[in-house]
Fold each of these.
Amino acid sequence: MADLTTPSAWTSLINSSLDPSIADDNGYKCIFDEDFKYVLLPVSYGIVCVVGLFLNLLSLYLFIFRIKTWNASTTYMFNLAVSDTLYVVSLPLLVYYYAMEDNWPFSVGLCKIVRFLFYTNLYCSILFLLCISIHRFLGICFPLKSLQWGHVRYARRVSVIVWVVTVVCQSPVLFFVTTSVNRDAITCHDTSSKDLFGQFVIYSSVMLVLLFCIPFLIIIICYCLMARRLLQPTRGMSRLSRSKKKSVKMIIIVLMVFIVCFLPFHVTRTLYYSFRSWDLSCQTLNAINLAYKLTRPLASTNSCLDPILYFLVGQRFMKFAGSKVPGKPPNEMALGIVPNSQLENSNDTDTLSKDVKS
């Protein structure tokens, strides 16, 4: 049992809650002052729900009703929007749960589904961002190969594979996640029961490597090679063209969004799970518990940032609501980009394709 002699700044016996996952799973009896999360999580999840639902429904409307012919990037972005929408519609349950101070009045099945949707959206977002990044990489660095591998039919097959892989990999969450009675309340854990916690940590570690570390490494490599290509001087031009500058900015923006949304969550979650398995002081446990709770809303904000990326990547995205946009800027060929119009004869498709690759 852990020593309870911790500074009052870290623990509180008044208006505090015993962290059920730590107390039940590992025998720690540290009392944490978690009042902050009963304000932070409902407010943050509520904002993500409202903003994310509006932006993703708007994006789905444009994808379905305004874009007549899709290209590879459109396909990946549409699937990303579907994933985000499925997640944000589950957030009202979490808003109510945390507003009621960790009291889950719904069924065990709903608890499992809500946690499952969180992780499914998390890793679907990562994998579809990976697909978009590879598609851009091929268009800039290997434009001839992108004619073949950038075809929409391949993007559809890859999208199906992403969904299948993510659902299969996250299906154990439905087995691990459970509820437990804590005093007069029912807690909806995002981990597992005490006897399965060791297996859950192993499972989470495997998912960390397969669905976060490897895709993140590939994205970094692709963007480094893209930046190297874009920063090369173009014959007859002493400065970076406008399109090249925009492409470099987009690389930086996507990487920053990826790092802000996904990296802090995975780091703090890994530390949180590891520290729960060790007999550490209440100070240390409370610090990592605080960090983990703070990064969970960050991971959810990708549902709001993904639709914004659609507009940043394709500045003419909203023009799909109007007439067709005329053709290709002359400096695009300087980027080594072969337009998808050679594959799909649609001005609508070319517009989004150019913006995505530029």
Amino acid sequence: MAHSTSGTSTPQEASARQEAVPHGDGGAGPGTPPPTRRGMLAVAAAAGVGLLAGCGEETARSASGAGPHDSTGAERSPSAEPSAHSPSPTPKPRPELPRGGRELSRYRLVGYCGLPGAAALGRLGTGDLDDRVRQIEKTARAYAADRAPQPVLELLATVANGTAGPDGTYRSRTSPDTIRRFHDAAKRHRALLLLNIQPGRASVLGEVKALREWLVHPDVGIALDPEWEMGPGEVPGATYGHTSGQEITDVARYLSRIVAEHDLPQKPLVFHQVAVSVVGDQSALRPQPGVVLIKSADGIGSPGMKRDTWRQLVKDQPEQVRTGFKLFYEEDTEGSRLMTPEEVLALRPRPDYVMFE
């Protein structure tokens, strides 16, 4: 899944640009090439992702304009208010997960990740979207075991760039139109939509808050990719980024408030971890009401190598944190093979989320 960073656009990248709002030069540029395949991934997407301008403004306007108005902004007539003698309205059903219920523990989450027009970032970015979701459904059944299968679309909503961009954050935001298209597909297929964040030098919590208009839905969660979270002077692709247990907890608290405000079912908060150093101070991880923390082991290699990475990452893991496991259709099979569903389900603790790139 490696690709050129020369600045020459592929047809897929050109297609993706049509779905995104322009953001600076957006390209990887002639800078220092990333040291590994993982270093190539985020830089590749820069040509196909645009700045998401004004995300959340509609929600903010609604909040500031609270009052006796309908969806068109017109003032309600006093006659529209229920009278003292009117029958009590039927209670509105509580929001549920796409396939029923309000707790994630009944499901095995199985998904693809990606971004339209950026094939190097995963299968979700290629082919017909509905066909891809049907493939996820089939794959999910193979990993369900003792649970119901729950398909997942993990869309890159914030993508780390190899160049600073106008605001110096080394990141781009996927356009609202693209997010809406994927959310519509998730609703059609009763799937979960996870919005993946590769923050570059931007604030992680700030990127999550920018997605609030989607997070108020019961079928939308967050996935963090902290290996792309850069400190001052760091550039995506040149080194692994890092986060902390406290920062993840801060995101969980924000999501928990949304869950409470909108009476939502449990919301997943996934954090992908490729090495022990990527997430520091895990003792500070504090699960929050209505939010399920999932640590996803993210590493490339043979089945034996991936099991070794797994053991390192789940060692001394806080009991409240659930587990996930990432498989790579191409990289894992270079000189080896993809792990089978039976091998993945034999991992302990058994993964709650299995994701393919």
Amino acid sequence: MIKRTNRFLSSYSLSLSIDHREGMEESRTESAPAGDDPATATAEDEGLAAAAAAVLDLTSCQLHDLTSVELPPTLIELDLTANRLASLDPRIGQLSNLKKLSFRQNLIDDAAAAAISGWEALSGLEELVLRDNKLTKLPGAHIFKRLLVFDVSFNEIPSLSGLSKVSSTLKELYVSKNEVPKIEEIDHFTDLQILELGSNRLRVMENLQTLVKLQELWLGRNRIKTVNLCGLKCIEKISLQSNRLTSMAGFEGCIALEELYLSHNGIAKMEGLSTLVNLRVLDLSSNKLKSIDDIQNLTRLEDLWLNDNQIESLETIAEAVAGSTEKLTTLYLENNPCAKSPNYFTTLKQIFPNIQQIDSKIFA
């Protein structure tokens, strides 16, 4: 599963001191060429000040509470990532202009998170991040009528119960690394674009049929045995790494698919791929493959990961990957019997003239 970075916009922090801004102003005044319009400089300063007053980034400040922190009512973004907060400052619930709020990597439990359901003034909040805390149930986010991003990954949540109350405006939902056994209460998210439920206890792919705008589906590290995309055709990225798949059947209709990650399963045959003409990345490493099949028509394929399988020979690889011999830039075949072939790298470079990386070896 690809690691998510902090999605808060980088901007001027409120920590930009008044003295520092005054120093910038003095420096600008001294160095300004004759004839420069002072009004322009003033407008720039006002713009900087406005940006600073709108964003407060307190990441990794080791705060146990916010008693020493001023929370201006003009705040649009508040980032409290990586602190030691075990309770929620009630003043946050009065920041009516707030659009983005992150409590990522703190010590917030269910009792502390209960305050969120009473934050009526924040009804316009668009992004709420409670990733990596101590939650054992979904917090009451129903108060936020315009929510676009909801992240409760890396907690101990045992089910998606309560998700039906979250606003249907949601576009990104992250509930990875919890204890969820079933995909449920998501049918009203018809605008959802990203669904991340990796590292849970899922056994079945279900209840996805109404997610008609879904573009990314991340279900790695679960217990899924069979692919069932419920008729969805707009998905561009799918991860089912580290599950219990033995067959690739089920992807044939995903014609918009660009990235497919299926490593660490029990797949013995490459199949159902010929219709995926937009595929750029295919990861089938650590499976039980003995040959390369069904990808000769994939003309856009750039990355092909087949390492740690049982592929015997390089003799048929040129034909097997015929459509992408010019496009392919990354190929992993290490830990297959074929990787011990004489002139291994030379042979592959001849087949793929634009290759940039074979296994761990990078070519200039």
Amino acid sequence: MAATATAGAAAAPPPRQCKLDPKSELRVEVPPDAPLRVRLVAGTAEIFGTELPPEGWVPIPPRSKIAIFTWHGATLELDGVTESEYPSEETPMVVYVNTHAILDARRARARAAAAQGGDLEASQGPRVIVVGPTDSGKSTLCKMLLSWAAKLGWKPTYVDLDIGQGSITIPGCISATPIEKPIDIVDGIPLEMPLVYFYGHPTPSINPDVYKVLMKELAKTLERQFSGNAESRAAGMVINTMGWVEGLGYELLLNAIETFKANVVLEKLWKMLKDAVQSKPNIDVVKLQKSEGVVLRNSKYRQKTRSFRIKEYFYGIANDLAPHSNIVNFSDISVYRIGGGHQAPRSALPIGAEPVADPTRLVAVNISTDMIHTVLAISYAKEPDEIISSNVAGFIHVTDVDIQRYAWKPLLVCGLYLCSPGVNVIHSRKKLTYIAPCPGDLPSRLLIASSLTWYEA
């Protein structure tokens, strides 16, 4: 089948069929503003480890870049517009499924060790961390490994450290969630039981110390869960990372490997990381090839993707949800920012020392119109000093901040109203308007500020 490309604004072509040979895939790019659906006519096929149902139409979300792979051959039918669609026999799937088989064997050994009363180390399943540069297919590989494991009855924990894009929840978060079934092609990562820590920025360079602290808090929480659940411990983790792999980014990758006690590293920086972890016991570094179907994305595209991810949180992937608008008094909430606190005075420092701002200090934020269009996280913390060590309940999007209003009250002079001069009257409201995914009061009065913005059309 020859490669085709269709402009997003063009009329949708009629449904068409594509026959795939065994161990080949159909690569498809979906435009942002046109529907597409796929149907399996014959054979078997899967999208990132999740099998297509026979004969049923499957809607593909806008802006998706997918590869429909078949092991034994398949006939597909496409209905709708695509930016590109073409088959390819160049695929790393055989290597990926062999990697999955090795991980599955490790899970089985860990489960057997737990049943025989083995120690925590022997009963620990694979903790896989996937690293590599931007647009090397890390998120896709994570989805496949998770879906294949869930298909066999395991419940691995997915950990997402990529704050730039966010595959579990909105960007700016470090998060984790158990995967109990193959990842849904349409709905994506399940959100029934996510564990989310809010960093609040799209890059760790803004405050790397806070990024490290939040990774540590998430790892501690997961360790507590694993210690009381032998099955989850044996299933292990699959950890996705950001694409920043040089300088500070490389340092943070090494920190993530240590923090989450990763014992399998799947990566594209084989030489660099192998040298860095060779002195550490029980860490296997595996070099994997980059998929030829990976699409490169520029910074402008990534920024748009972040905006779409925030919109999806409030409106749903299919734009079928209706967020609720609410108003809250300033006095009923407290907003804090992590990091950027006041520097200690020189008089309080040792001789010759320079004052340095505490990167993890909690700073109260005055509510102002600068918050309009920003995203605030709702902390589960009971007290402000617990915010950095607490996960979050969800997010709100600020649509308006009403600080105070001025009005001219005309003067009554000799029975006549004079327009000027008048009296300047301040009507103080001090109310913040926001949208939330569900109605009702906020679950907490402690909110976390961020640099994440979204402008609703």
